[in-house]
Write a structure and sequence with these properties.
Blueprint (H helix, E strand, L loop, with lengths): L4 H7 L3 H37 L8 H50 L2 H6 L2 H43 L1 H48 L1 H6 L3 H54 L4 H42 L21 E8 L7 E8 L4 E6 L5 H8 L10 E3 L2 E2 L5 H6 L1 E4 L10 H5 L9 H10 L3 H6 L17 H14 L4 E5 L7 H14 L4 E5 L11 E6 L2 E6 L1 H7 L2 H17 L1
Parallel strand pairs: 3-8, 3-9, 6-7, 7-8
Antiparallel strand pairs: 1-2, 1-4, 4-5, 9-10
Helix pairs in contact: 2-3, 2-5, 2-9, 3-5, 5-6, 5-9, 6-8, 6-9, 8-9, 13-15, 17-18
Length: 587
């Protein structure tokens, strides 16, 4: 049970519900064990009256008392069973919610590198299927186990008191039932997991084709993808059939064991009745107890089988929860009232896992400066701007904002001051307004949204949409063009009025005319904020206050556009080549 320590601590938060649920479970189990005894006493009184010679007084009053006790006991048992399930299962649902929330919030603390190493489908499986398996074991499993541990001793004690020999005989089919359920449940769990896995693969195959339908059609791969989907659907069908067969065997074993127990009671009870050693009341008592013990004994085997699945699921959950965030808020932060936007890099060297991506980068950017960052693919441009907001662990003493090491600035404070537009313009399946206002807890004023849209040259597009800002987007913004998605992302960053604006190749999908309009508007605002613009198109950084050229993680050149052209280095050669390419495109 050490694996479930985290969940048990969560259960402790709901002590009151657990206590009331335990009381209800105890009372329901006592009534469950007592009802057959009361009923058998009523049957025995009638049997005694019918067999007496001469017959005495009719036991009408006693039978009325028995009926009243049976009715009241049944109603009370149902009442306590209801509260038992409502309270105990309710607590397990709350713990499931808490565990999912803890899992989700912990995921959001992890750096992008963790998600680069993990599969989305696997994380979703841990957050849903594994948490559900743990809840079933700790919720329903423990409830049925506790009910069984209370009911079985009471029932067996009563049965032994009435007929020890028959009780010993019944131990064979009932024990076989509990033992077989363990293996059968493992088999059911194995096939259920296979069904879930094949369903996940089927869903993933469909989702990828829906999201990438343009690529599928563009390469005329409809038949190929249909074949692959059919193979996944066939695997799902086979696993479903295997699960159905396992369930069928399960029912066969359950019904066979129960019928064997009933047949044994009828044979022994009938022979005992003929010999005068067993009466009808005793036969009824044993039949009633067997029917009541049937499910609790099944539950024991079910719980034993569920333990393995829950333990494996909890181990997978703990694997994620025990992953320490690579980037954490400082334990002793420096109190920062407001961030101005001055940035300094001091001999910054950074590596993900292997060789360094950045090597000895030193820069000092004044507040309000417009800085262009260019270079070959893989030269470290995206890594550099990602480190400004500590998306990855930053080496101590290598990046400073307003003279303070970013590792000492509260993480929320630092990121609130940075407007970051990544290369992949991700949009949510919501309205344009909700996407632009994503960084706010409440809906911002429409005027502020309009200004942000104007800064991103988005106003003309909004006017063409039938619902304007209320236009609902498809998944990942698929209903917009690439350039429109980038401009919505830029508007989202500008709306926050950050002190530092980072555009990581965020203009690659817009035309040069729109690019020029956006840059002109950003330059007007550059007096109020520091701007980092990463771009493959050198025309985008032509008017920057300073242009930094990276090569293999080092600063190869830096200066203004005119200065870099005069040096005849990589920047000058690339500028001439891109200019010739642009002129050829216009011909």
């Amino acid at each position: 049970m050490r694996r479930f320590r985290r969940c048990l601590r969560a259960f402790a938060r709901y002590r009151r519900e657990l206590l009331l649920g335990g009381v209800s479970l105890t009372l329901a189990s006592l009534l469950e064990a007592g009802i057959p005894v009361v009923a058998s006493r009523g049957i025995r009184s009638v049997e005694t009256y019918l067999s007496a010679e001469p017959r005495g007084e009719r036991p009408d009053s006693f039978l009325l008392l028995v009926l009243a006790l049976l009715l009241g006991g049944t109603v009370a048992k149902g009442f306590f069973r209801f509260w038992q399930r409502r309270l105990l299962i309710g607590v397990s649902r709350k713990v499931e919610r808490d565990l999912k929330e803890e899992f989700f919030s912990h995921l959001l603390t992890l750096a992008p590198g963790f998600f680069a190493r993990s599969r989305t489908g696997d994380l979703l499986s841990r957050a849903t299927g594994d948490v559900e398996a743990v809840r079933l074991f700790l919720g329903a499993g423990f409830m049925y186990a506790a009910s069984t541990l209370l009911l079985v001793p009471l029932a067996l004690g009563t049965m032994i008191h009435f007929n020890p020999g028959l009780t010993a005989l019944l131990a064979v089919p009932l024990g076989a039932l509990a033992w077989s359920m363990k293996g059968l449940t493992r088999r059911l769990n194995r096939h259920s997991e296979a069904v879930q896995q094949s369903l996940a693969e089927l869903s993933e195959r469909a989702q990828e084709n829906f999201a990438g339908v343009r690529v599928v059609k563009g390469f005329a791969r409809e038949a190929w993808e249909t074949q692959r989907f059919g193979a996944a659907a066939e695997a799902y069908r086979r696993h479903q059939i295997d699960l159905g067969r396992a369930r069928a065997w399960n029912h066969v074993v359950l019904n066979a064991s129960k019928d064997a127990a009933v047949l044994l009671i009828l044979v022994v009870g009938g022979l005992g009745k003929l010999r005068g050693t067993f009466d009808l009341a005793g036969t009824y008592l044993f039949l009633d107890y067997v029917s009541r013990l049937y499910w609790p004994l099944i539950a024991l085997g079910w719980m034993a089988g569920m333990y393995h699945r829950a333990a494996a699921g909890m181990a997978r959950i703990e694997e994620v929860l025990s992953t320490r965030p690579e980037v954490e808020t400082p334990r002793e932060p420096v109190p920062v009232e407001a961030i101005g936007g001055e940035v300094e890099l001091r001999d910054l060297t950074f590596a993900y896992d292997g060789a360094p991506v950045l090597r000895g980068v030193s820069l000092r950017i004044r507040r309000g400066e417009f800085v262009g960052i260019v270079g070959r693919i893989g030269s470290g441009k995206t890594t550099l701007v990602s480190l400004l907001g500590r998306l990855y662990p930053v080496p101590e003493g290598s990046i400073f904002v307003d003279g303070v090491d970013v590792n000492r600035i509260p993480l929320r404070k630092l990121r609130d001051a940075i407007g970051y537009v990544p290369q992949d313009a991700f949009l949510f399946s919501d309205t344009i307004l909700e996407n632009v206002a994503f960084g706010f807890d409440a809906t911002p004023p429409v005027e502020a949204v309009a200004r942000a849209a104007e800064a991103a040259a988005l106003e003309a597009d909004l006017a063409s949409f039938p619902d304007g800002l209320a236009t609902r987007l498809g998944e990942r913004g698929v209903t917009l063009s690439g350039g429109q998605r980038q401009r919505v992302s830029i508007a989202r960053a500008c709306l926050r009025e950050p002190r530092i604006l980072v555009l990581d190749d965020a203009l690659s999908a817009v035309d040069t005319e729109t690019e020029a309009r956006i840059l002109d508007r950003l330059r007007l605002a550059a007096r109020l904020r520091t701007v980092f613009l990463v771009s493959q198109r050198l025309s985008a950084v032509e008017a920057a206050d300073r242009i930094v050229v990276l090569d293999e993680g080092r600063i190869a050149e830096q200066g203004t556009h005119r200065e870099l052209l005069g040096r005849g280095g990589w920047y000058a050669r690339t500028w001439r080549r891109q200019r010739i390419e642009g002129e050829l495109e216009r011909l």
